[in-house]
Every structure is written in structure tokens, then in C-alpha cells.
Amino acid sequence: MKVNGKHYRSLWWDSEQNCLQIIDQRWLPHDFRIQPVRTMEEFSDAIVEMRVRGAPLIGATAAYGMALAMANDASDNNLDAAWTFLEKTRPTAINLRWALDRCRTALKPLPVVERAEAALKLAHAISDEDVEINRRIGENGLKLIEEIAANKPNGEPVRLLTHCNAGWIATVDWGTATSPMYQAHNAGIPLHVWVDETRPRNQGALTSWELGSHGVPHTYITDNAGGHLMQHGQVDMVIVGTDRTTRRGDVCNKIGTYLKALAARDNNVPFYVALPSPTIDWTVDDGVAEIPIEERSERETTHIQGKAETGGFGVVQVTPDGTAGGNPAFDVTPNRLVTGLITERGICKASPEGLASLFPEMTQAAE
Length: 367
Ligand code: MRU
Prior knowledge:
Layout: E1 2-3, E2 6-7, E3 11-14, E4 19-23, E5 34-37, H1 40-48, H2 55-72, H3 76-87, H4 94-107, H5 112-150, E6 158-162, H6 178-186, E7 191-196, H7 203-213, E8 218-221, H8 226-231, E9 237-240, E10 244-246, E11 251-254, H9 257-266, E12 271-274, E13 280-281, H10 287-290, H11 299-302, E14 303-307, E15 313-317, E16 330-333, E17 340-343, E18 346-348, H12 352-358, H13 360-366
Parallel strand pairs: 6-7, 6-9, 7-8, 9-12, 10-13, 12-17
Antiparallel strand pairs: 1-2, 3-4, 4-5, 10-11, 11-16, 14-15, 17-18
Helix pairs in contact: 1-2, 2-3, 2-4, 2-5, 3-4, 4-5, 5-6, 12-13
The protein binds 5-S-methyl-1-O-phosphono-5-thio-D-ribulose.
């Protein structure tokens, strides 16, 4: 998508410098900084510190990490060591492990001398596929927005609510939850997006930056406002992303998503999840019981970073000295609260049968 009129992906391979280039998201929305990633330690740091973030993007980043590892030393030992080193960076989003598994499975049978080139090609392929998957999610989600728009009087906007940032910078391009929004906006459908701030990391500010850059009308709201807006008929549909969806359709996404799903159900607001297929964990059924939830630093809850009114960046403490902070980064929304899953192959029910109808080869493989 575009930043100041220039098209970017959220990462790209720099063949002149022989390194990965990323947008360092820790400085957004205030500063657009591009950062080279050249060593395995820098790959790990980029994912752990959330310079890159969002399930599909950390998967693509990990694939480039495997490519670097193979360029350094393409032995079997190093292939396994790189898998382990990168896999431990973040535990919840399954795309990370999906990408690492895909790389290891493809590279292991190859002669050692061929692995470096093949790994880089595979990382490019994973990135390109992500863009195409998200574009198709947008096409499929657009149909839902068109239906709502068709029933609006006098061209009133379709009012969407989203949580966290499931936008183009959380993927390689387009985003998942935002892809239908961008495609609807491009098709001339009037939209208004309620953007949850998403404490503690305020990914809603990233979503606001994205939507603002593309001229999509939106309002940044506190995390606690969504239920009130739904009660007052101001939300037509919720669309969120996911970090891991189980084979029965339980959805693990940024902390607070579950509360939005409860409020949506209580107010008959459709609650949709934009779901690229690499985010499905076919080995897991019960999301609440089985998905590991990342616990992040308490400092993310007790301190907050932003642009100072006097200029520059600042970090301020919001709690009394010594207050303990708890920071589970994700929660699970059970399938019964999800109206539908918007995938690259179409929209289905959040159920084992729904997912099996779109991905029969995966369920057959699991049998
Ligand atoms: O902790 P983050 O910022 O990596 O969490 C991101 C999310 O929860 C997104 O909603 C999810 O990864 C889907 S991104 C298309």
C-alpha cells in the first residue's frame, strides 16, 4: 500500500545490500523508519521487540531468517538450529511456525549447496503468496460490505469496527481485516471505521495511520467504547484478524477481541474474522485450552510511549511506582461467537464443517 504516494510492502529483500529491509513499526505512526535486518540476532530482535508484528508478517520475516541462516551455513544442524532459534521468538501466532516448517520441509531434502538459493526463493514465494491471499480475502469480504451498503438509505456509510492492527503492515500487503475495507473504499462505497486503540501497544494507532494514509474515514476509540457504540446501533459489522484459528473455528487474536465478540453477540452485530489459511492450526481443536498465550512485559502496561507535545518521543509511567502489571497479549473467541470466517477461498461458518468445506485437503490429511 502507499506511504506518502509511494508503494511499499511491509518488508522486501534488498539484493544490493543482500539483506532484508523492514518498516520498524515501533516508531509508527509518528515516524516512518526503514531498518535493515542482517544477522540472526537482528531477525530475532525484530520479531520479539515487534519491529515487525502481525501474524502473517512475522511468518514472512521468519522465512527470510531461514534464508539468512542457510546463506551462513546450510548444514542440517544449522537448519534445525535456525528453526528453533526463530520459533521461540513469539509463541501465539501460528504463521511463524507454519513458515518455519514449510522452509525446513522444503530445504531438508535438497543438497546442502542448493539450500541457500532455494531458501531465498521460498521466502520470496511466501511473501508473494501472502499478498495474493490477502487480496482475495478483500474481494470476499467486499461482498459483505456491499450487502450492507445496499440496504443503507441515502448513501450513508457502512460502519465497521476493528480491533488491533490487521492491516497491510501486519501482513506483506493489503492486510487481512483491512483488505475488504480498502477494496470497498476503492470501489467507492462510503465507509466509517471505528478503530479500537488496543492497549497496551496501541496497534489501533497503526490502523488509524494506515486508514488515514488511504483516505478511509475512521475514528480512534478507547477499547471500552465498542459495546456502547453497538448498543446504540452505530456498528454494522465487526471485522478483526487472527493469530491462530483452530480447526473448529475458535479464533485467537489480540487481547480484547473476545470482549468485542461478546458485545457483538449481545447486540446482533455480525462478527467476522479475516483468516488467511496459513493462520489455521489444523492440529488444535479447543482454542481456550490449547493455544499458548504470549505474556508480554508488564512495562507495556505501566508505561506508554508517544509523541511529546514538545516534540520528540517520550515514555511516561501511567501507574503508581511499583504497581504490578499483567499483560496477556491475546485471547480466544470461541467459534459460537463468530458469524463467519473470511478466507481466500470464500466465507465459511466458524465450525469444523465450515473450514473443511473450504479446505478439504487439510482435513483429509489430518485423518
Ligand atoms: O501483537 P501483534 O501486534 O503482533 O498482534 C497482531 C494481531 O493480533 C493481529 O490482529 C493478527 O496478527 C492478525 S494480522 C493480519
